[in-house]
Structures are given as structure tokens and as C-alpha cells.
Signal transducer (Perilla frutescens var. hirtella), 442 residues
Amino acid sequence: MSQNQQLPQQSGNSNIPVSEVYWTLVAKADKKFSKIRDLPYYQRTRYDTYFYKVFKVYTQLWKFQQENRQKLVEAGLKRWEIGEIASRIGQLYFGQYMRTSEANYLSEAYIFYEAILTREYFKDGLHLDVNLASKQLRFLARFLTVCLVLNRREMVYQLVNQLKLLLDECKRTFQETDFKEWKLVIQEIVKFLKADTAFMNLRPLRYSVVLDLHPDCLPNVTDAKRKLRLRDALLCSYHPNEVKFSELTLDTFRMLQSLEWESSGSFYQANLAPSIGTGSGASQNGASGPSRVNQDITDPTLPPNPRKAILFRPSVTHFMAVLGTVCEELPSDGILLIYLSASGNGLHVVSSPTRAGSSIGYTENIVRGFQFHSINSDSSSTYPITTGYDSVDHSGDTADCLHIGPRGPGSGMNCIYPSDLLPFTRRPLFLIVDSDNSKAFK
């Protein structure tokens, strides 16, 4: 055992001041967090070891500050420093959800972020330090993303209002600071919510045992020689003026939910009634009470959620590299779903609620079917799905491709052609092309 790991035990003998032990753990946690923060989400299990090492340090740090809170406060510990630890843990949980698609990680991220919000860790000194104000703004933006994916719309609107009020206060207090980027953030989320309003009162996009048939009740392919499952998905979107929040576009946001099981119906029920706290982890993370999200959402009778790699405006080279990595790591019984949302044939199509809504309703049922249906291995392993764009008149258009980059001289380097995907059809592939030029991929 290393010396740093022994520090908490030594502090019990008063050999080392509690504050020194604490700041040693903080430095160690910061160092490990910086190594994992920018790691890609799309490589299967490659970075799990890093996550568990970082999480172990932050668990130790969080527990230590809880057990020695009074002494640390007397030594000068600020509330915002406690909030920053909780925020880091929330980031770790959300990052691991993005890597694994396991809903429990998403639920835990919400719990930590909600605790920060309700206990107002960043409030003290907020109007005296612009850096502290920026921490609060970043925290609200991260919490917004978690709430969007978790479908906690009431909390989303609450956070948007808080973000607006905080930004107004910051502009009045710190007049010498330009908060232009945060104005754009608010514009993005308002536009995003306005575009997605039509879906608010409808059934969730996730498969729900409350509203859908159980997989055992669905027909199977009786003569299948191989039992294949949807294991991975690559979601890519590029439009000139698409509706988005941060790097989550409206298209990929809806596809992300369509590719997940909602085994207990908790996401849907969260919009109908307050969640009831369950589980034994409340004392560890400090978030308990009636607002606690139900963590018991794992149903062993349902398959795991497919891992999803979400690419926001990638270059063609990056897209192909990620696709190659995902194919290489695809399990032997796995199907890879590729969702491409982009314009083609020189038509600039804006990602709109009408377009995204019409396509997602069609692809949603297809995607769900592939989560539990067996596929006949004798048939073709590529299943291109097209949307209502086939009715567009393409007369005079010659480029059979999708554009995932700016147009202009040399823009051919930013195009994805059907032939680019042929090498990857060696693995079971399910292709959804959401484009005005989808017929080129038939």
C-alpha cells in the first residue's frame, strides 16, 4: 500500500494534520481526473481501469471530508470546494454512462448534481469571485445535460431559469467580463426545448415495460442460425444549423433514447409523480429524500443497453477511425447500428423538429426490434433504412454522398460515400441514413 493510501489511517493518530491529509488526497484526485477527463467514450472497456482508479480516489476523498467536515471547515475548507468534489464525481458517473450506456451511472450523476443544487455549495462568495461564478454556470450546464438524457423535464426548466438569473447577476456584478459564450448556451437550450416540445407529453422514446410488450411476448425468427444482439451504435450528425445543446444534437438525442431499455418505467414515471428514494447508497453520497432518483432500474430479464458512440460534426477521417475501432471491438454475437444524419446533393437541410420527429418515429420501432430479435445469418448483414426524404426531387444532382463537413472547393474530402462503408459490412451492420440523399445508400 502506498503512502498516500495510508494517510487517512495515519491521521487518526494525529501524526499528520487532517487538513494536510485532505489536500494530499485532493491533489491526487485532481491528477487522476485530468488523465481521464478527455479520454474518448467509444472504446469498449479500454478505459474502465482508469475510471475505477479515479473513482476509488474520489470515493476516499468524499468519505474523508464527510468524516472530518468540522475540522476541515475550521482549517479553512470552503463550501464551494466540497461542491467541486461532488461535481467531479457527477462528471465521472456521467462519463461512465456515456461509455457503457448503463442507466445506473446516469442516475448516480443526477443524485450528486441534485445534492449540489439543493445544498447551494457554490452560493457563498458567488458575487465576489468571477471564477466561482463560472464554476456555478458550468455546473448548471452539466446538470442540464444529465436531466435532458434522464428525461427530467421539470428540473430542466428549473435549471434553465436558474441559468438565466445567474447570468443576469453575473453581467451586473462582473461588468468587465464578457459572458457572450453563456448567452449562446442559453439560446441553444431554449431553442432545443422549443424544438422538442411536441414530444414532452407523449410516451417516452425508451422501451418501457410499462407501455410496451415484454420481449418474451414478441415473435422470434425461428430458423435463425445465429443469435445476434444489438451491442453497439454509432450516432453521427452534421447539419449547418442544427438544433443542439452543447454537442448533443436533437437527432442524436432522440436516437440515444430510442436505443435504451427503460426496464422499470422509472424515466416515464418520473414525469408523473415524484420519485421515492430507495437503495442503501444515500448515506454515502449525501443525497437522500423524496427527490432521490430510483436506482433500481436494472432488469436482469432484459438485455443490456447497446454501447453508443456519439460523434458531433466529426471529420470523415475521425468518423472512419471510430467506426473501425467499434467494429474491431464488436462482440462475436453483436450487431452494429450506424445512424447518419446529414445533408447530401448540395441541399442544406436544417435539423428541425418536424424532420427529426417524422424520422424518429419510424426508426424507433425498427431499432427496438433489433434489441431482442434473432437475425438469420444467411441473409444480408447490412440493413439500410431510409426516411421520407426519398420523395425529394434529386434531378440534376450527381453526388451520391453525405456531407459531414463544410462545403466549397475540395469539399469532396468531407463526403461519406456508400462505398466507404463496404469494408465494415463484414460484421452484422444495421444502417439508418437520415438524409435528403438516403436513396444513394440503398
About this structure: The mean pLDDT is 76. The two ends are 59 Å apart (CA to CA).
